[in-house]
Write a structure and sequence with these properties.
It is built from 17 helices and 18 strands. With about 475 residues, the chain is an alpha/beta fold. The strands form four sheets. Strands 8-7-13-10-9-14-15-18 form an eight-stranded mixed β-sheet, sandwiched between helices. Strands 2-1-3-4-5-6 form a six-stranded mixed β-sheet, with helices on both faces.
Amino acid sequence: MEETGSTRQKALKINLDARKFGTFAEIGAGQEVVRWFFHAGRAAGTIAKTISAYDMAISDGIYGPTKHYVSRERLEAMLDHEFKRLVERLDSTRGERTAFFVFADTSTTQTHSRQPAGHSWLGVRFQTEPRGEPSEIIVHAEMLDPVTIQQQEALGLAGVNLIYGAFYYADDPPHLIESLMDDLSRRRIEMDMIKFSGPAFSQVDNRLMSLQLVEQGLTDAAMFTAAGEVVQPAEVLYKKPVMIERGSFRPVTNVTLQMIDRAIHQLPAATPPEEPAAIMEMTLNNLMCESAIDHRDFLARVDILSALGKMVMISNYTRFDRVTSYLRQYTKNCIGMAVGVPTLLEIFDPKYYEDLEGGILEGLGRLFQGEVKLFVYPTKQSDTGELTTADEVAVQPELKHLYRYLLDNGFIVSIGEFDPEQLHVTPAAVLAAIQSGDPSWEKLVPQQAAAVIKQKGLFGYRATP
């Protein structure tokens, strides 16, 4: 692997590349990215223009009005405007020998009156060859340093890494993602969304790139919609009620789908009325096949969830309280978690909270922060046919009173509507039937899921002999 060197060396290498020439547009945290190119020397070979349209009226006059100044919408407007102007003004004089680019960011840093710390949208639009169609990378970053100037410094490093990656690692997106953290650490910055587009990335699946962000430790969680559009959580969760279900989804069964859909029906009504965001979450542990994550297997699960219209979240969270704490950053509305009885028992197992000073009490306190409810789908024992609901769950004796308190006060809720005929069905049994050619599995999964599995030959599907 190539040695990337320091941030200054990266900037200097770009400055010395006679084919690269472009504009830097930065709003909200100084001009920390372009500063590296000036300090590295030979900047005249790279920089066509720098601009910081900091005043809102000036910014709107150049890029058009927007509801949110630190947003994907504003970043895209900046990239559109500046790239168009750059090509209009310089193509006739140097277009034959120059690959043009625009870097832009719009940021907010910490103030004394606002928590949490800052965040930024960063993007680069670039040609890989003179007069070629441009490609683009967009990133969202949370800046975690406690002091504004440190957040600005981290933004500068991230911006140089992004530009360098676009120029020199476009043919290796996983390495490009890894390089975004050069000279940085997760104590300083978190990158929770990345989107690649354009001819340089025609073979890139952005859902896999979201997985890369979590696998490589740039973030703890990443999300994308049923349509496969990668999103920053605030874009889809802001002020909304949320229902989330955790699982492997290999494959989704009728019970899996009923669990979240029927839990949604029992969510408290939002004021004003808001359609709940339904999220299917897979952890890195859920995705492990033997000792590694199989990307094709991951996409198989995602294709099915997309066909069912569900948003997908990938995380490295093992404890459930970390999930609700994460979601609570983006919505003050009700958060529901749809779980089965076996998962409910895991939540009340003290071994999962041994790393917390307050043990299970601290963990459950974090889990139920704000308006949070566990919606519990009943379970039927396959050998006895006995039905177990949230009301009959037998937790450890020392936790009985705590469990009863949560149940009586509506933190734990039984899902009232369910289909008793398939409660005994497990994903493992369905998977075995899919792989053996037993046609009975088709009645155990949603019709849309069955169609995708058969059409794409997922999970080792074998047609009935």
